[in-house]
Amino acid sequence: MHHANEWPALLQHLELTLIAVVLGFVLAVGAAILCHFQNWLSAPLSAVTSFLYTVPPLALFQLLVPVTGFSVLTVETALVLYSLYLLFTTILTGLREVPQDAVRAARGMGLTRLQILFKVELRLAVPSLIAGLRVATVMTIGVVAIAAYVVDEGLGSLILKALQSPFNTQFIGAGALAVALALVADGVLVLAGRLLTPWARTRRAA
Length: 206
What we know:
Elements: H1 2-37, H2 42-54, H3 57-68, H4 72-96, H5 100-108, H6 113-124, H7 126-146, H8 155-163, H9 169-196, H10 198-205
Helix pairs in contact: 1-4, 1-7, 1-8, 1-9, 2-4, 3-4, 4-7, 5-6, 7-9, 8-9
């Protein structure tokens, strides 16, 4: 019976995580590119995202509930806001650490500013993008468990119910699944990073 409950909860957990990470990543990439082009925006955006990151997840949920209620929207909004700092800072750092020789060479070949961004800078920033995604994904998987206080979904819901029960098998099972999900997600992103940066593999082999 417990296993029958765990699989739907695992899928809900995965869905909540994926939506938050994808939305957070899209917003963070947009913000990082904007700051890369308009450097003066870096300080205020960094300040806002870092402040949001310092707010404990439960407090962020409590602040949003009066506006969006006990809903998936509340959970996803909090998760996206919470992941922005990690994603934004790593992506912006990756863009800024692109060797200027590569940028100058691309400019010398007649590439426009946008072409340089998409064909050179973002490609060379992939390791930073993946590093940010790994940390944000694992963190989000953990925070989704706390989201059970807001919506009755995910592995956190099973953990909360197990805490009120004399039997701890479901608690252990749900916790183990959350850890396994984080490990698998991290492994997938590591593999994706290697596939997207073949030049790095060639350099390591050399």
